[in-house]
Specification:
Structural class: alpha/beta
Largest sheet: 3 strands, parallel
CATH architecture: 3-Layer(bba) Sandwich
Shape: globular
Radius of gyration: 15 Å
Number of helices: 3
Strand order of the largest sheet: 1-2-3
Number of domains: 1
Length: 110
């Protein structure tokens, strides 16, 4: 039987956009939210795409949150594994894990 949880805000996806929204909610004092993620971990595109040579085509220091700069990028154009690790770090640093609902797919019903 499915459990139901009432929350004020539901964010769909745990890529850059979803995690950024979650951090903003916390900073605005909103704690009654969940981040719904179909997969088993955060990362969005950077979790799903892991082909050889997968990397960012934007300099890494620009491809990070202004509120969470990463001076430890290993390359100017970091690879998928480093970007995914950065997103995992953001989830941990900003206390988002309790809000994550991994393995939760959102379906449109008509």
């Amino acid at each position: 039987m499915a459990q139901h949880e009432h929350v004020r805000v539901a964010v769909i996806g745990s890529g850059f956009g979803g995690l950024g929204a979650a951090v903003r909610l916390r900073r605005e004092g909103i704690s009654d939210f969940v981040v719904l993620e179909r997969a088993g971990s955060v990362g969005g595109t950077w979790r799903d795409n892991s082909y050889p040579g997968c990397a960012c085509d934007v300099p890494s220091h620009l491809y990070s949150f202004s509120f969470a700069p990463n001076p430890e990028w290993p390359r100017t154009f970091s690879g998928q594994e480093h970007i995914r690790a950065y997103l995992e770090h953001v989830a941990d640093t900003f206390g988002l894990r309790p809000h994550l609902r991994l393995g939760h797919e959102v379906l449109l019903m008509s």
